[in-house]
Amino acid sequence: MADTLSDDEIESRIPDDWERDGDEIVRTYEFDSYLAGVGFAAGAGGVAQDAFHHPSITIDYGEVEVRLTSHEEGGITEKDVDLAERFDDLQ
């Protein structure tokens, strides 16, 4: 089990363009088309599966919202921050 991060650790480690929403970190990625967003979500799903850490992903026209938390630990952990950074590398 990973330890949850403190409020200060979350603030200092959360990647740019991500926000904290309670026990989750959240980012909305914007795309020029629906299919571009679907493609990103598919790639993010593959990365998440490889990490065995599964986000909530909502696809809408022109945007994809990603929410990360570590349910088993009850909050935000280093696993969430690491996966957020990996998602940012996809775009």
From TrEMBL:
Enzyme class: lyase
CDD domains in alphabetical order: PCD_DCoH
Keywords of the record: Lyase
Domain of life of the native organism: Archaea
One GO molecular-function entry: 4-alpha-hydroxytetrahydrobiopterin dehydratase activity
Keyword Lyase: yes
The keyword Lyase appears for this protein: yes
Reactions catalysed according to its record: (4aS,6R)-4a-hydroxy-L-erythro-5,6,7,8-tetrahydrobiopterin = (6R)-L-erythro-6,7-dihydrobiopterin + H2O
Signal peptide positions (record): none
Pfam families registered for this protein in UniProt: Pterin_4a
EC number per UniProt: 4.2.1.96
NCBIfam families found in the cross-reference section: PRK00823.1-2 (NF002017)
Family: Belongs to the pterin-4-alpha-carbinolamine dehydratase family.
Name of the protein: 4a-hydroxytetrahydrobiopterin dehydratase
Organism of origin: Halomarina salina
